[in-house]
Amino acid sequence: MPQPTRNIISAVFTASLSACSIVTPVPTWELAKTLGAASTAALQMGPTSATDTVVHPHLPVQRWCIEINRETQVQDIVPALQQELQAHGIESRLYEAGQSPLDCPAQLSYAAWLRWEQPMWSSQFQPYVYAATLTLRGPGGAVLGSTRYEVDGMGLGKWAATRKKMAPLVRALLTGYDG
């Protein structure tokens, strides 16, 4: 075969190889998998919502006392609740379970539970809040409202921060709506 023909065939073969990596479905499939994984991760960090909210009619309460739950596994739940209450203009203070705060018009009790899983793109197990409940009581212990959070079947909001999970619960106790 003459040299120019060999060079042309070699150039076409080389060009087809480099084009092959561009038009082959494998990179497209890899891109689709990466976008799908990124979307899943975004949803798992995304919004959460309150469920089963019940709020009984009562006057607005601007000062809540939070009963410390030493049994909960979630270390940052109290700061998360206090930050959310403050964002809504509500003062809060803490009291130990079993004590009765005399000058508190509303007492907030909570419970929260953790699970351990491996986040996407991680080789280590990490905890996340998978469920929480809030109950607001008035003077004399009457229930003013209650609400809860639980990771849904699709894992929406699974890896969101504790405060992001508590925000819709506090809002639900204030408004009476789950959203």
What this model shows, in words?
This protein has a six-stranded mixed beta sheet, with helices on one face. Helices cover 37% and strands 27% of the residues. The protein has helices at 3-23, 25-45, 77-87, 162-175, and strands at 51-55, 63-68, 91-96, 106-117, 126-137, 143-150. It has 179 residues and is of the alpha/beta class. A hairpin with an 8-residue loop joins strand 4 and strand 5 (126-137). The chain has two domains: 3-43; 47-175, 2-Layer Sandwich (Double Stranded RNA Binding Domain). It is elongated and about 65 Å long.
| DSSP summary, beta strand count | 6
Q: Sheet with the most strands?
A: 6 strands, mixed
Gyration radius over CA: 27 Å
Instruction: Identify low-pLDDT runs.
Output: 31-47
Tally of distinct domains: 2
Order of helices and strands: HHEEHEEEEH
Which geometry do the CA atoms define?
elongated
Helix content: 25-40%
**Count, helices:** 4
